[in-house]
Amino acid sequence: SVLPRQFCVVVEGESDAWSLWFHGFGALGLPGATTSKVLKLNHLGGVETLYVWQEPDKGGELFVSGIAKRLYEIGYTGKAKIIKLNGFKDPSEIHIRHGNQFKKTMEYLLLNAPPLPPYVPPAQKAIVNFRKSKGDLTDEQIQRAKEFPLEVLLDVKPGTKIVCPNHGDSRPSLWIKSGFGFCFSCGYHTDSIGWLR
């Protein structure tokens, strides 16, 4: 197997990007586990495969899930994969401990990287869970739906218009307000519980 022609490794921290650059690998360093929102589509111009380094802690999990969500939000259409190495926190540690084996180690990790788990918006999760329950809402599901306003359940901002599930029109006509939605085409009115039902 050969590495993709246009690839980049996104890492948590600037020093890891320096280590990758030193050894000839394309890299993008974000300054912390919670900074995925700074990633923009133009940062990934020409990148066919994006590799996300996961550090072995809660911050690493947060970083990976944040990148997955951000790639969904910005509409990245390339491949995304996840890389990590047991016993090593990050690429800089590989450079420090085994600098002469860095290139070989990274190539192995990149060639064997599994796909990055895709981000699934809360609304899709709720719909999948509802379908699994065969349409019957339990008391627990109803309570949880009450705790999540419709805009949170659908992961949209209040004031957004989306396609109404109540009629066959493909144009957005369901206006999402704080806690409820109203369709200007058919008059459908819903909250989180109604949406799930």
Observed structural traits:
four-stranded antiparallel beta sheet, single chain, 8 strands, 197 residues, alpha/beta, four-stranded parallel beta sheet
Descriptive notes:
It is a single chain. This protein is of the alpha/beta class and 197 residues long. It is built from 8 helices and 8 strands. A 4-stranded parallel beta sheet has the order 2-1-3-4. Strands 5-6-7-8 form a 4-stranded antiparallel beta sheet. A hairpin with a 5-residue loop joins β7 and β8.
Please render the helix and strand layout as text.
Layout: E1 7-12, H1 14-22, E2 27-30, E3 49-53, H2 58-74, E4 79-83, H3 91-98, H4 102-111, H5 122-132, H6 139-147, H7 150-154, E5 161-163, E6 172-177, E7 180-183, E8 189-190, H8 192-196
Parallel strand pairs: 1-2, 1-3, 3-4
Antiparallel strand pairs: 5-6, 6-7, 7-8
